[in-house]
Amino acid sequence: MDDDVAVDFGEDGLVPAVAQDAETGEVLMLAYVSPDALAKTRETGFAHYYSRSRDELWQKGKTSGHVQRVEEVRVDCDADTLLYLVDQEAGACHTGHRSCFYRTIEGEHVGEEVFDPDAVYDD
Amino acid sequence: MDDDVAVDFGEDGLVPAVAQDAETGEVLMLAYVSPDALAKTRETGFAHYYSRSRDELWQKGKTSGHVQRVEEVRVDCDADTLLYLVDQEAGACHTGHRSCFYRTIEGEHVGEEVFDPDAVYDD
């Protein structure tokens, strides 16, 4: 049996995690993960992250229903970045897009809109 | 004409950038980008990053030849993460793998080895 990779959470106790659509390969979002968020993700099978602005653990989609079922967690060579391979409900982005990366740096809109954010979020 | 998206480089002046194979969708690596690294990337068409450990701008593959030709740069909704869509020469990872995400968190080896690191790197 393989041993778990020891993740290097660094000074601030967080690592970036890239969420990728397990089926299409689309990169959906990047957020940060604490040891607790990683443990919850592995325990429940749903993606959890740590919000730096709200200073709390959160489950993606808990409010909106746009959860991420995690099929696999990968670790990079330095063990300081994670890759979540997920089955994304509706869209990952609070703007209504499937992916948070819906713009080029030139400002061109290239992403798919999959839901109406006004119908999903209260604020 | 669209206007460039103003990237939020935050307190430390860096944003994470995910490099993704533009053709296959494979997530190859994550590294950090400074304003200068982003400018160089856009100017030259080759991926540049900022090394936090060496405290310097670097061009991916400058030594190894495993450069990344950047087809598109995307920005996420908060404008604090970049996505480089790249044409990766050989492999992105110094370990000889195509992708730095060659292991699951359980330690299972899932990535493809594409070159011999001993033949490419001196140290």
TrEMBL record, chains A, B:
Q: What are the GO BP annotations of this UniProt entry?
A: L-histidine biosynthetic process
Q: What is its EC number?
A: 3.5.4.19
Question: Matching InterPro entries, A to Z?
Answer: PRA-CH, PRib_AMP_CycHydrolase_dom, PRib_AMP_CycHydrolase_sf
User: What positions does the entry give for Zn(2+) binding?
Assistant: C77, C93, C100
Presence of the UniProt keyword Metal-binding in the record: yes
Member of which family? Belongs to the PRA-CH family.
Entry function:
Catalyzes the hydrolysis of the adenine ring of phosphoribosyl-AMP.
The record describes its quaternary structure and partners as: Homodimer.
Query: Which HAMAP family does the entry link to?
Result: HisI
Name of the protein in its database record = Phosphoribosyl-AMP cyclohydrolase
